[in-house]
Amino acid sequence: MLSNYLPIVILGVIAIVLALLLMTLSKVLGPSRPNKTKLQPYESGMDPVGEARDRYSISFYLVAMEFIVFDLEVVFVFPWAVRYLDYGVGTLVAMTIFIITLFIGLIYTVKVGTLNWDMKKGMFN
Fold it and tell me: What is the spatial distance between Cα 117 and Cα 52, in angstroms, rounded to a whole number?
């Protein structure tokens, strides 16, 4: 039974060894010219403002969750849309209810002010 998994284990070992080998070669053979700019915490060209422990607004997390929900919607809707003629009317009704439910949720979050980024009028600010 375990012999069926032997190719997967071999592939995993090869991947780990190859990754370690390439990282080591990069460190040994690659150029290393550190300077003051490269050693700063941010390399984006902007000076860091504030502390790293500053809290984000709850709206940021709510928008991120909405983004994940609508990404998952695509995961469900896309395969159905590709083969919708092969399915019956029941899947059309189910998918319509699914999309309407998500749309109602989006309307709700817009109404409560999730997408309002004004710091004085946010949902939980």
Answer: 21
